[in-house]
Amino acid sequence: MELAVILFIAILLFGANKIPELARSIGEATGEMKKGKEKTERELEEMRTELEKDTAGD
């Protein structure tokens, strides 16, 4: 029921034609955020591995 109310309010605010465009934009933004998060995690893991190698060699 809550979802129906939210959808109704969204249609009133943005209009029925803008909803798919808005959803697409949100999806693209979410995808970009996920890619950025994965890239950051990879870089941190590489730095951690490099630091472990440096400290193990000492």
In brief, what are we looking at here?
Helices cover 91% and strands 0% of the residues.
Structure description:
With 58 residues, this protein is mainly α. It has one domain (2-57). 91% of the residues lie in helices and 0% in strands. The protein has two helices and no strands. The chain has helices spanning 2-14, 18-57. The longest helix has 40 residues, at 18-57. The chain is rod-shaped and about 65 Å long. The termini are far apart.
Keywords:
58 residues, mainly alpha, 0% strand, protein transport, transport, rod-shaped
Task: Return residue spans where pLDDT drops below 50 for at least 5 consecutive residues.
Answer: none
The biggest sheet amounts to: none
Rg (C-alpha, Å)? 21 Å
Kindly state the percentage of residues in helix: over 70%
Mean pLDDT: 89
What is the total number of structural domains? 1
SSE arrangement:
Blueprint: H1 2-14, H2 18-57
